[in-house]
């Protein structure tokens, strides 16, 4: 299983419906291929609450280790991903929703005073929710109560859920008001995010052939050194490492759904040889492509 995205890494999954734009789900990292979910973004806001285990959560290149009982708020359109820490699994609650669920209609005072202040703030990518602040503790407590409601009844009463969201947002707003001194707030630049999306789009459109750093840098009109620095800063990974991981990710689908030989498959995803593909696959997955295919087939 893996998050489905378009060429600019926008998640394609629907989060709720037009009539009720919210999705609440319990997620488990081990259910994702390779124990992590891919870098992606979406126009919805997201609260994540750790139920069990730990997760390395990355937003726009800033990595945070979140443990049981902690959480994080991710602003809309932010690139984010999550992976296991020390191969330990993690269960977490994800709540994604459009802010209009709270403010109701355009130009309402709730929107202009309390929502836009956070959602449209160029310096706010996310807020860590730890137990060292009372407002954050209140948010975590409410997220825990939403999780309890979710366990008891997947179809939570809409008005009750809206009450929880409004309370959570009220505490988040208070957190934001004092965030400069007490919370981690990371600078965000719309130009940088658009540039990053163009790099990712170029890689994903061309991963099936040999890629050079020069052509990737040329795609956004910067030099190779600046391209490497920029990508490392925002993705917490080198370009070459990302390309290899992306190719391995794409190969999982082909291993599961085609009868391509390992040699043909390797060439289809941009590897120069089957042996190099197998080497990288084993390094990232812990077993060979053939072992992965056989194990999948044995589970059917």
CATH evolutionary superfamily of the largest domain: Regulatory protein AraC
CATH domain class name of the largest domain: Mainly Beta
pLDDT < 50 stretches:
181-188
- Beta-strand content: 15-25%
Mean pLDDT figure: 86
Number of helices: 12
DSSP summary, beta strand count: 8
Largest sheet: 8 strands, antiparallel
Keywords: DNA-binding, Transcription, Transcription regulation
GO molecular function, one term: sequence-specific DNA binding
Protein name: AraC-like protein
InterPro entries: AraC-bd (IPR003313), Homeodomain-like_sf (IPR009057), HTH_AraC (IPR018060), HTH_AraC-typ_CS (IPR018062), RmlC-like_jellyroll (IPR014710), RmlC_Cupin_sf (IPR011051), Tscrpt_reg_AraC-type_HTH (IPR020449)
Description:
The protein starts with 21 loop residues before the first strand and ends with a helix. It has helices spanning 100-103, 109-119, 134-152, 158-177, 179-182, 190-206, 213-218, 224-235, 239-257, 262-268, 274-285, 289-299; strands at residues 22-28, 36-40, 45-59, 62-67, 71-74, 80-83, 90-97, 126-129. The radius of gyration is 21 Å and the shape is globular. Helix 3 (134-152) packs antiparallel against helix 4. The chain folds into 2 domains: 22-182, Jelly Rolls; 190-299, Homeodomain-like (Arc Repressor Mutant, subunit A, Orthogonal Bundle). Strands 1, 2, 3, 4, 5, 6, 7 and 8 form an 8-stranded antiparallel beta sheet that branches. It is an alpha+beta fold. 47% of the residues lie in helices and 18% in strands. It contains 12 helices and 8 strands. This is AraC-like protein. It comes from [Clostridium] celerecrescens 18A. InterPro entries: AraC-bd (IPR003313), Homeodomain-like_sf (IPR009057), HTH_AraC (IPR018060), HTH_AraC-typ_CS (IPR018062), RmlC-like_jellyroll (IPR014710), RmlC_Cupin_sf (IPR011051), Tscrpt_reg_AraC-type_HTH (IPR020449).
């Amino acid at each position: 299983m893996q998050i489905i995205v378009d060429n600019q890494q926008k998640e394609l999954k629907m989060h709720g419906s037009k009539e009720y734009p919210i999705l609440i789900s319990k997620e488990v990292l081990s259910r994702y291929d390779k124990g992590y979910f891919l870098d992606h973004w979406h126009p919805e806001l997201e609260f994540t609450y750790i139920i069990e285990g730990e997760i390395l959560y990355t937003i726009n290149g800033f990595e945070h280790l979140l443990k049981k009982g902690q959480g994080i708020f991710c602003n809309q359109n932010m690139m984010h991903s999550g992976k296991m820490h020390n191969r330990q699994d993690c269960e977490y609650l994800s709540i994604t929703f459009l802010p209009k669920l709270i403010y109701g209609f355009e130009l309402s005072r709730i929107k202009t005073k309390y929502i836009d202040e956070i959602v449209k703030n160029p310096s706010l990518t996310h807020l860590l929710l730890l137990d060292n602040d009372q407002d954050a503790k209140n948010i975590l407590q409410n997220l825990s109560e939403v999780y309890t409601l979710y366990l008891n009844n997947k179809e939570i009463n809409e008005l009750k859920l809206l009450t929880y969201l409004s309370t959570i947002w009220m505490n988040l707003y208070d957190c934001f008001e004092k965030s400069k001194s007490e919370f981690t707030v990371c600078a965000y630049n719309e130009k940088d995010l658009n540039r990053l999306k163009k790099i990712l789009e170029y890689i994903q459109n061309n991963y099936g052939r040999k890629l050079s750093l020069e052509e990737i840098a040329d795609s956004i009109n910067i030099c190779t050194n600046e391209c490497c620095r920029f990508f490392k800063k925002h993705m917490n990974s080198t370009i070459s490492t990302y390309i290899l991981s992306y190719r391995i990710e794409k190969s999982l689908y082909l291993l599961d759904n085609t009868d391509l030989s390992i040699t043909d498959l390797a060439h289809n995803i941009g590897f120069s040889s089957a042996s190099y593909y197998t080497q990288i696959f084993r390094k990232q997955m812990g077993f060979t492509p053939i072992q992965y295919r056989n194990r999948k087939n044995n589970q059917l």
